User: Fold Pantothenate synthetase from Methylobacterium terricola.
Amino acid sequence: MTPSPSPPASVLRLGDVAALRARVGAWREAGEGVALVPTMGALHEGHLSLVRRAQESCRRVVVSIFVNPTQFGPNEDFSRYPRVLEADLALLAEVGADAAFLPDVATMYPPGFSTTVTVAGLTEVLCGPLRPGHFAGVATVVTKLLLQALPDRALFGEKDFQQLQVIRRATRDLDIPVAIEGVPTLREADGLAMSSRNRYLSDEERRAAPAMHRVLRQVADSVRGGAPTGPALAEGRAALAAAGFTPVQYLSANDAESLAPLERVEGPARVLAAAYLGRTRLIDNVAV
Assistant:
């Protein structure tokens, strides 16, 4: 008889900062590089691709799972954001992550906590005005995670491109000695960017959802080479609305570094969109 495959080793669970620092410190003393993959859980193949990418450059990988309350607005989906910890840990074991950092709210925001990290400029466009306080919540929690773990590098998906640029800027400005790596968006076969929120979509909405990526690619093709961005963006917004996205919060061509809106693309840029499909807010972007 062929022996049954061995179950994957369990992932080391770390619940407090002292345990995290002790474990990371021991790895580093042994000469092993350490990567951090911050997440809010409800893991999917996109998250696992970050872990695999981290394993290419570092011997040890820590994945944090923390649904951060400070990045949700009062009318957003914090209470219904999916929480499936045991399933997440099983996936991390399968992919070979070394440890999961699982802080609770009191660990991240103890009584009397009164410090916020705010990044100007980059947060004043795109999602910033639509989600007041969101990026301050992101920058604060990621700064804490980086300082708690002090890994060699931390990896983030490019689907949340504005978030990635905010984290890069905060890390650079505060001299945090961690390399920030953006990893290309992982997509379903029909082009939909993988997201924990995709599970909110109805069957009909799921069939319509890939239109966002198609529109982004069409706009990027139209503006590549210096054509005015206005007409292509107007056509794109109309196409999103026709596909069932309402409201379309933005469809924009922006400088890849500063995120400033562009009338013409003359260097590295991104076309970015945020729109609702039913009750679910989807975001995506493509490079120009």
User: Anything to note?
Assistant: Residues 156 and 182 are 5 Å apart (CA to CA).
